Amino acid sequence: RNFSTSLAAQKEVQNVTVFGAGLMGAGIAQVLAHKGGYNVTLADVSEKATAGGQSIISKSLTRIFKKSMADKSAEEQAEAVKKVVDSIKVSTDGAGAVKETDLVIEAIIENVGIKQELFKFLDGKAPKDAIFASNTSSLSIKDVAATISEERKALFGGFHAFNPVPQMKLIEIVKTDQTSKDAFESLTAVAKKMGKVPVSCVDSPGFIVNRLLVPYMLEAIRLVERGEATKEDVDTAMKLGAGYPMGPFELADLVGLDTLSHISSGWRDSRVSTGEISAEAVKESQLLESLVKEGKTGKKSGKGGFHPQ
Ligand code: CAA
C-alpha cells in the first residue's frame, strides 16, 4: 500500500456515524460520546427509530448518573443526561450522516443482504479514507463487505460490542484477510478510548464470545429438554459453580430467544457445510423454536422467554 493511503488511514478518528438506533447501536453511540468524547451521529431510517435510540441512551445514562452523581440533585443529574443525549446528532439522511465521517459503525438488522446494501450505498457517499465497521455478532465480515470497493475493503473490519453496551467491557475487533493494519489499529484505538478492552479475532463464526456462548446456551436448553435438570437449577449451577454472572437461560432471555434461534439457524444453513462449525454445536432445539414461534422471545420484547417477567 502506498504511503498516502497509509497516512490517511492513520488519521485520528473524530467523527463517528453509527447506523441503527436499536439497543446495540444506541449503546455504542452512547459510549462513543460519553466515554470516548467523539462527535457522534446516530442514524436510522425513521425519526421514530432515532427517537427510540435517544430514549434507550437517556434511560441508561439516568441509571449511570444516579450513581456517579449521587451527591447531586435529581435536576443536576437530569441536566447531565440531557447534555450527553443532546451532543449525539440524530439523522435519517444516510448520505448526509457520513459526509464528514471518519468511521462508520453499522448496527442494523442482522441480515447480510440489508447490511451489504447499506455499505454499498455508504461506500459512494463517505470520504474515501473513512473506516467502515460492522457490529454483526454472527455473520461473516467478509460477506458483509462483499459489495464495497477493494480500497474500502482494506478499511473494513468487525467492531463487536456486547449487551448491555455501557456495562460490558469487551469489544471484539475482527479482521478479514483484507483488513489493513492501520484500520485494525484505528478500530482498536477507538475501543480503548471508549474505555473498553479490545480483543482481536479472525473472521470466523461468532468470533470468540458467540462461538462459545451460542453452543453453550443451546446445549443448556437441550439438557433441560432431555429432562436432566430444571432451567432454574442449570442457571444456579452455572452462576455458583462456574462463576458466570447470569445462567444460560437468563442470558438467553437477555440476548433474545429470536436472536439465538436466528444465529444458530444461520450457522446451520451456511457455516456447517463449509466446515467452519460443527453440526452438533448448533443442533436445533424444539423448545427454543416453539417459544420463538409463540413470540416469547425474552427481555427485549418483554414477553416470556425462559424466565417470564
Ligand atoms: N446501562 C447502564 N447501566 C447498566 C445497564 C445499562 N443498560 N445495565 C446494567 N447496568 C448497571 C446497573 O445499573 C448496575 O450498576 P451498579 O453495579 O453500579 O449498581 C450494574 O450494571 C449491574 O446491574 P444489576 O445490578 O441490575 O445486575 P447484575 O449485577 O446482574 O449485572 C449485567 C447485570 C451487567 C447484565 C450482568 O448480569 C452480566 O454481566 N451479565 C452477562 C451479560 C452478557 O453475557 N452479555 C453478553 C451477551 S452476548 C452478546 O451481547 C453478544 C451477541 O451478539 C448476542
Q: Give the distinct bound molecules.
A: acetoacetyl-coenzyme A
The Rg value, from CA coordinates, equals: 20 Å
CATH architecture of the largest domain: 3-Layer(aba) Sandwich
Low-confidence stretches: none
Structural class: alpha/beta
Report the span from N to C terminus: 54 Å
Q: CATH superfamily of the largest domain, called what?
A: NAD(P)-binding Rossmann-like Domain
Reported for the largest beta sheet, the result is:
8 strands, mixed
CATH class of the largest domain: Alpha Beta
- Could you give the count of β-strands? 8
Task: Indicate the percent of residues in helices.
Answer: 40-55%
Q: Do you know the CATH topology of the largest domain?
A: Rossmann fold
Mean pLDDT: 95
User: How does the overall form come out from the CA principal axes?
Assistant: globular
Element string (H = helix, E = strand): HEHEHHEHEHEHHEEHEHHHHH
* Lateral strand order in the biggest sheet: 3-2-1-4-5-6-7-8
Question: Total number of helical segments?
Answer: 14
The total number of structural domains is 2
Give the topology, please.
Layout (H helix, E strand, L loop, with lengths): L2 H8 L4 E5 L3 H12 L4 E5 L3 H22 L5 H14 L1 E3 L2 H4 L5 E4 L5 H14 L5 E4 L6 H4 L5 H4 L2 E6 L8 E6 L5 H13 L3 E6 L6 H17 L5 H12 L5 H8 L1 H14 L15 H8 L16
Parallel strand pairs: 1-2, 1-4, 2-3, 4-5, 5-6, 7-8
Antiparallel strand pairs: 6-7
Helix pairs in contact: 2-3, 3-4, 10-12, 12-13
The site of acetoacetyl-coenzyme A has 20 residues, from helix 3, helix 10 and helix 12.
